[in-house]
Records
---
Amino acid sequence: MKTQITEMFGIEHPIIQGGMHFVGLAEMAAAVSNAGGLGIITGLTQPTPDDLAKEIARCKEMTDKPIGVNLTFLPGFASPDYPGYIKAIVEGGVKIVETAGRSPESYMPELKAHGIKVIHKCTSVRHSLKAEKIGCDAVSVDGFECGGHPGEDDIPNMILLPRAAEELSIPFVASGGIGNSQQLVAALALGADGINMGTRFIATVEAPVHQNVKEAIVAASELDTRLIMRSLRNTERVLNNPAVEQIMAVEKEKGADLEISDIAEQVGGVYPKIMQEGTMDAGAWSCGMVAGLIHDIPTCQELIDRIMTEAEASIKGRLAAFA
Ligand SMILES: Cc1cc2nc3c(=O)[nH]c(=O)nc-3n(C[C@H](O)[C@H](O)[C@H](O)COP(=O)(O)O)c2cc1C
């Protein structure tokens, strides 16, 4: 399938694996790219720019297809060495960067000077328009369904995607809540040129996480995610577990007075325990409502082939029959 996104990134299928903390390692990105999608290494999972350089090199040993790096610009309090990470990306020869969080505006000149394509992940039309204005090449429009940070507007993709299509001139992919071929076809119908998936890619053979994480996603239904940190304006959609219930109890008790330190134990530094050790109740971890549509743990190749084969059959068959 050819779309503006496949042409822009030089990939076979319009399917991107979004950056994911402690999931987007070299193995994950290489598996997705080898399957014809766009695999993305999560920059900040690597403790230093030097580690990111090594991770990029490791990934390039596993694939000669295009790969990307995610740079998440965190809310005010944390300030990683972004110029250093960008240097590692440039020197590693990576030509695609997925930005997320705060606006990448101050880093755009540097990224563009090195011919890097930038796709910015946004949860609103206004942020998407800003991304277009500052020179991003594409946008990943992330609806309220998404795993991770859905923003504070709570607009689901059935509205957000056609709104983005009304306003944007640059191409965009649909992100959030997507895991199968029907949803790819729907996303194309709503104006997107492809899809970005997070949660779905965790439940794959190659995802470099503990088997417990994959099985937790398969076991979960669409009713099993919760929103936390709303009063901090840093809302995150996570899979429910005892730690999340504890967070919600503290949130209820503190109301508008909640501070990050009140829940630090359940949200700070818990990813290695969950993703690597499989201690599923160690804290809160991002997971999308799409868990309800995830029933197996295929290889990335099987997953992407299945999505593309079924989508093309649906467009030529069921949908064509309506015309
Ligand atoms: C476990 C997990 C970790 C994530 N970490 C990041 C991250 O570090 N940076 C980022 O930009 N997005 C992150 N995301 C969001 C994904 O890139 C993607 O936008 C989101 O998962 C899409 O929604 P879906 O899970 O419904 O497919 C994360 C998502 C998950 C599930």
---
Amino acid sequence: MKRILVIALALIMTFTFTVPFAFMTDAEEPANAFYDFDSYKDLIQGLTDSSSVSFSTLMTDCTTVCKDTLTAFAKGEIKIRIPTINGEPAPLRNKDGFSNITFFTSELYDLPWTWYHCKVGEYDLRIKISYLDALDNEQLREAVSYTDVLDIIAPDAPSPSNYQDYESYKSIYEKDLSLDNGKTVKAMICELKESSNVHVMIHIDGVLMILYGDNSLLADSFFESLDLVAAEGAIKGDVNMDGSFDSMDYVLLKRVYFGTYPEEKLNCARGDLNGNGQIDSMDYVLLKRAYFGTYEIR
Ligand SMILES: [Ca+2]
Ligand SMILES: [Ca+2]
């Protein structure tokens, strides 16, 4: 069932990193909210189509960082990433009152996070990702490992050098992991005192990823089957969301500008090419030029 609830941050902070996002200082930012999705397809549609219910609901009262992320999805500037195991989308299952996938507007480090509730063999596995490549912070977008990210957003967070100061960790250490795509990434492994579950944090292609599952599942061999792939979502210029960019797109955009076609039927984030927050004649001109190949949509 689709729903959105404002919930206390404390209820979902299962990961004990509570240091605030360093460059987010606005105390007036809205509280965390979440939205459930049943499938990868629903997630892609729900976060890339600015005319969908989930998109407009999430945009209504979310943080600036979350708005930037959603807008980047809608414009097709960044693609939704899907976790894969041996080349197949990771199997999902409902968990803890949530659906298969949950998008949080402002969770760990005050960032928006997508939680994939997965089932791998007998094990429950939570995969959380946050899109650093959507953020207005050049240093974060250029980060190459999780340590680069933590140095910027949470320098005092638990790490291999300071975990003894934190009650809940048995050990935190770093290791190199090989992924299914052949790349090797630096990972931070956090072992807990009172659970056989571990947290594993890695940085991959502009995304910060945290896996939470049983120690015996999250072995090196599991990571050799794991990847995070870009899903086909937004097609640039496809303002009517029919899966292709063609002359209908600029015709309809022109009609929205002249008020003869309902704006809510189009993905207007995708049609606002000059980025001024409204559909104007310049958007129509640029979209038409893009169609004829004399302008490249960013
Ligand atoms: Ca179209
Ligand atoms: Ca515009």
